[in-house]
Amino acid sequence: MKIIRRIAILLVMFLSASDYAVLYGQVVRPRLLLSAADVRLMRESLGRYAWFDKAYGEAKEAVDRACASPIDVPKPVDAGGYAHERHKQNYREMQSAGILYQVTKDERYARFIRDMLLQYADLYPTLGKHPMAASDEYGRLFWQTLNETVWMVHAAQAYDCIYDWLTIADRGTIESKLLRPMARFLTIEHAATVDRIHNHGTWMVAAVGMLGYALNDTNLVDIALYGTKKDKKAGFLRQMELLFSPDGYYAEGAYYVRYAIQPFIILAQAIENNQPELKVFEFRNQILKKAIVAELQLTDANGRFIPINDALKEMSVLSQETILALDVAFLRYGDRGGWLAMAQKQGKVSLDASGLAVARALQNQGTPTTFASRSVEYIDGPLGDEGGIGILRSGPPDDQSMLVMKYGAQGFGHGHFDKLGFLYYDRGREIVQDYGAVRFVNVEPKFGGRYLPETESWSKQTIAHNTVTVDGTSHYGGVYRVAQEHHADRHFFSAANPAIQVMSGKIDGAYRGVSMQRTMAMICDSALPKPVILDLFRIDSKQKHQYDLPLYYMGQFIHTNVAYRAFDSARTRLGLSNGYQHLWKEAEGRAAGSVAFTWLQGDRYYSMISAADTSTFVMFTRIGAGDPNFNLRSEPGIVLRRNAASTVFATVLEPHGYFEPVNEISLKATGRVKEINVLVSTAEATVVEINGTGSLHWLFAVVNGEASTEASHSITVGGKTISWKGNYSLWKH
Hints:
With 733 residues, the chain is an alpha+beta fold.
């Protein structure tokens, strides 16, 4: 007996706290986003690191205020009004209170969480389908299950933090009337969402997994990790395989990775704290690290996410989800490409061990290096074979040109029908825009804050983007299930030479019998103050079609060389469907040569010069037709229309000049580029000529066949043969 006792004593001496707990069938809490070791470190660090103290102080102020106020758990009645927002505030306050209780052991915070959970335990059994539910993915507390899962992710953390403090009776009530019924609701009634490869599925498995760890329920944890059938064909790990490309690009785009990265990061932390043998942060060659690098690169100079697919333009790296993701990534992977500089730009850290790590590094390191925004291409699809997205950048952050072209996959239900679309930024401002989504988040009078119908009828349609629409119909007929099965293809991407950066993409099959290729270049010249953009959109078909190429510019119309007729009182819509019904045709004219159009945005002028002849119609448009509820922004555009079989839209975008209204200064309101001509376009190559003032004369050639940096090419232009090696060439004379 003495020998056994001595062995037990020795085991206790050498076992870690978690090993000891496992040996005796105990669970050391907290065990989700925080561990017991994290809590000790956070407690010991108070008063030592300014950024962490700020996060602690803000949380304490908010939760102390909540503790001093009556708890309100309203009956769900709206999709984005008071009840909706109150339930969101409740879960945020509970989660913060749980952290504060662990750090301070002040029982006020534990009582606050207990009392709120008990009120939810009274309410939840009375709830059926939410009265404002708009789809099969309905919730009870909220109008959709997505919000329900976010509530659970936070509530599970709060429950875990006070679990040991609660009485057995209170645990029984909370679990039997609230947490386990919610678990059944999510995993049984919404089993399809648990197994769905989508951001809704990610939040769902995070909720189920966090609750599983909080309840010490291995069945729920296994469902979260491996799907409802536990066959590894769904679940968290499968989502990390299918929702990201090998280099970290998220299938639904930049705006949605900002939202989806939170459940990925939170559940990964919980897995690491409970099942470190899974090595989740090393999974798929550190895919979570790559995802966060990609997320941060997919922003403009102001940190706002590039608004492709369903997106709201105001969303930026200042979001709480991005702050948490960056902090956890720093803790797990160290600084990568200026992450500390990005954290400093965010101005906040999360209230956990990862936020503490960032706060300590910022204080000890001093001024961090700048975040390394760069020209970069991200491939799309889980295998990286579904096209991609390219970003070209030039200049310092405060005066940066940025060009984005999208040539990837559909991006699931939040994707738009806009293959080969582009956006152009200057100084962090949109110059050529993507509309994004039609939504006023949580603004109750606007359809409960949900996506408005015009997202489907306008912003997803091809004509709403800066790409070619054929015969007035959207890519793939605007049918999601068809578009989801197809993708564009990368042709090539070249950004090694800062003087000329080029990206090119192709698509076959968006329209029967029509092939399209777009090549875009960012060209720097010492004679020009800013880089110019060269855009070659080649279309090949054996049949004649109507081709419409819009450009949605941001700013004020200044001048055009097109003799146009304005529609003062009888303006008409551009069409009746496929997004055309939402465009007013304010003026139209016929080109007489290269089309020139200049607009002013901020203190800089921008000119579009497009190759054209009398077969090209020019229409000046404005968004907002067919919109009786005024859901759309009233913004201008210009549409080039051409009826042809095969054709090339060749355009130069030139920034130039300066405008300062206070002192009434306007300089160089006219750009240097005067014309662009397509000299030849064959299956092998397209060659264009660009002419301007001051002896500006350029010749640019791009390969239309198979891309290769080593291949040599020759083509006859005007009786002369020009030759080059690689995918493109630029000659300046």
